[in-house]
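Holo model, hexanoyl-coenzyme A. Inputs:
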Amino acid sequence: MQDILEQLEARRDQARLGGGQRRIDVQHSKGKLTARERIEVLLDEGSFEEFDMFVAHRCVDFGMEKQKYPGDGVITGWGTINGRMVYLFSQDFTVLGGSLSETHAAKICKIMDMAIKNGAPVIGMNDSGGARIQEGVAALGGYADVFQKNIMASGVVPQISVIMGPCAGGAVYSPAMTDFIFMVKDSSYMFVTGPDVVKTVTNEIVTAEELGGARTHTSKSSVADGAYENDMEALFEVRRLVDMLPLNNREKPPVRPYFDSHSRVENSLDTLIPDNTNAPYDMHELVRKLADEGDFFEIQKDFAKNILTGFIRLEGSTVGVVANQPMVLAGCLDIDSSRKAARFVRFCDAFEIPILTLVDVPGFLPGTTQEYGGVIKHGAKLLFAYGEATVPKVTVITRKAYGGAYDVMASKHLRGDFNYAWPTAEIAVMGAKGATEIIHRSDLGDAEKIAAHTQDYEDRFANPFVAAERGFIDEVIMPRNTRIRVARAFASLRNKQLSNPWKKHDNIPL
Ligand code: HXC
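Output:
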């Protein structure tokens, strides 16, 4: 009996060594943790339960029968984050570059099935050269199986991908179908094909960092939602995010103890809006002043900075925030910001996270670049996302809400539950100057007349009261009381029931 127990321990030790000490040392020399170390950082201490530690590949081509590693390059299982269950997989780059074989894929699919059945998020730590080349179509089939699970899990349980090494081929397409992608700066890359293939096919010379590094994907392509300095920081941030999310689509987001006053009055907000209505101010300040303990988990903070998206807590409950940012492009909506915010709104709606929308938007960005790029269709994504969302929606217009962008930004007409405005709000078809130049074109040569018309338009529309008279704005509120008013609004909506007509699925303008 003792022998058998010792044999089990010896087998476990071998599995824990992955591709061997030499490769582990190489992994460490690149500043990367091993697959097992990552799990230790991510989960609550001692909570990890492993599956399929002894699974081995079945390939006999290219001498693969002599290269067997128990576990086959991926560690799978479940554990807890602050006491709440998550499923995970962590690819082991020391085993054949973390490449995905048929059996490696089956391990990932198994935990994804369990996650869907038991209603818990899936976290993938990706460090993989993609489909295992020696296995050919068996590996490709394995990836397709993982993709199918990603699709089935989408909107059922949150899926989070952390990119922690060079990821190519299928190793990027699976993360692309998950809800959030986080990268590690300088040690993680995502590309369909690497720089060598790019050079061969297109003659382009590009470094891995330029082609698919964290900066590229967080600021240019928007494939990734955040980038962190090292493995530890990335994993700690994933813990922080998981803590804000519900475990599945049938659960409400967790309510955590909070240490902020529920009756906090923020006098400084009364002077947040500059006297000059065209001067910018930082919308981050408002978000942080509303949030419990000023904590804002921002999503895609380096992309389309004219809109902010992310999570805060209000009286302990998670709220998704979408806010125009007047510091960038005057807060205009454009292609990138519409796509960014639409995806965020849809995530919140899928997982019953209430949405707070802070509006200061002078309209859609005009011009050929935007029109040729399809701003009509991309802007419609955000309109569609807000309109179909059935979660509690609270909107605060701080200053401008012009034109179509007024409609889009969770207006009353798109089933906003509470639509508040600050006294500084200006709700109109467009700014006074533009409006005057159109409706009083015949007076354009007369500066005095134009000034008078502009003043007249401002007096009539540069306020929230015309909209309030129609009930499009429920209440004009004091800026300093915004946290209290918004928190009370969400509290009153806790039992909101709203559903859309039956359909197989909608046809959002992709
Ligand atoms: C088998 C692989 C592998 C792969 C890496 N290795 N990728 N083994 N299949 N796909 C092995 C290497 O042979 C090596 O083994 C070890 O992993 C480490 O690889 P290195 O090249 O030494 O590491 P590095 O220099 O850091 O480069 C990492 C890399 C590179 C950028 C990922 O290995 C690479 O380009 N690999 C191929 C990527 C690729 O084209 N994959 C196929 C994608 S097709 P030893 O024994 O020396 O440790 C795909 C289709 C899916 O995924 C469908 C999509 C829709």
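The CA atoms of residues 297 and 311 lie 5 Å apart. The chain is about 40% helix and 15% strand.
Archived with the compound record.
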